[in-house]
Request: fold
Amino acid sequence: MKIILKNKRDDSLRRHHPWLFSGAIHKIEGQPQAGETVDIHAANGDWLARGAWSPHSQIRARVWTFAPDEAIDEAFLQRRLRAALALREQLLERTSACRLVNSESDGLPGLIIDRYDDFAVCQFTSCGVELWREAIIRQLTSLAPFTGVYERSDGKSREKEGLPLRSGALAGAAPPDLVAVREDDSHFYVDIKNGHKTGFYLDQRDNRTALMPYCEGAEVLNCFSYTGGFAIAALRAGAKSIINVDTSQAALDLAARNAELNGFAGASMDNIAGDVFKVLRQMREQKRQFDVIILDPPKFAEAAAQVKAAARGYKDINILAMQLLRPGGRLFTFSCSGHVSQPLFQKIVADAALDAGRDVYIIKHLAQAEDHPILTSFPEGWYLKGLICKVM
Ligand code: SAH
Reply:
């Protein structure tokens, strides 16, 4: 199967960017099926790459390899999986929860594999990895012994590829309702079967650590808390009190259990089930004050068309949080929307500071943890941006 590009549409593939958009295609020779391997050629005939065909997505092919002699077979998948696991070896000494395979950034477009203690959780989000699913599971289980491998291919990205949503046990034992993982000195329960994404926000690992130096004796407000990852870090660092806010009661219940698991059953931790936008406004009316506030909202922009509305949302919560901080307080503010760039996010925070009437210093820039690496040829891989701000 052969794909020939339009004239002058070969730049990004020559720079090893792994996506081929439908608009760049001049001609398709043969009738590639979903996930099938295709060879991609420039208009002048040059061979550029070999990738997996996605007939329903705007990203019509995702590149497996830029090496002309490399065949796409089970041995190829084994090599890529082995390299991805090797990259995390050191990290796995400090944690039993880690992203083992991060899609394009590990040369396996559409494949996410997270490890939670003895269990692996997989997401197959492209036609290519869907076609090779059995081989991937076989190679994964032969490279690393897991008690069980579970599938959570139930995210929105499958729909863009025209794939049905699916979850369930793939190999070995089904996971228990909660799996306990360790991260440095902290422990967390993860709900593999029903939690968000594959169960836990592994990408915030380093930022949980970054929070700790600011928490001793502090009153901390943890917005969009999920199961309390930042809350446990704050308590471990000696926070005086912590309030978690999330719309999900199930997530808050698990945050309470995580506090117990870490020996903080008696600590001052309150859970508020509610909308952060409303809760922050109420707190402002009540003239509440905090020393540290964390804002880690869900992806506000799912597509480029939503960036403007997303920016308004980010600005609103940042204004409110700045107004709730005591002078000199710290704001940990994040955006995980890939469509909101770092410079745009920083501008939104700057606009929020103006509207809040506060002088704000950026103390540190934050990003996703090292098991979510960013390939230089695939800058889209940098999706999590954060700022530690000192709010005067
Ligand atoms: N900070 C968390 C991850 C946050 S994910 C961690 O480190 O683990 C985003 C969370 O925001 C989800 O738990 C979701 O339930 C919650 N959420 C989404 N919209 C919300 C809203 N408007 N108000 C409160 N919580 C919301």
The pocket of S-adenosyl-L-homocysteine is lined by residues 196, 201, 204, 224-227, 229-230, 245-248, 251, 275-277, 296, 298 (CB under 6 Å).
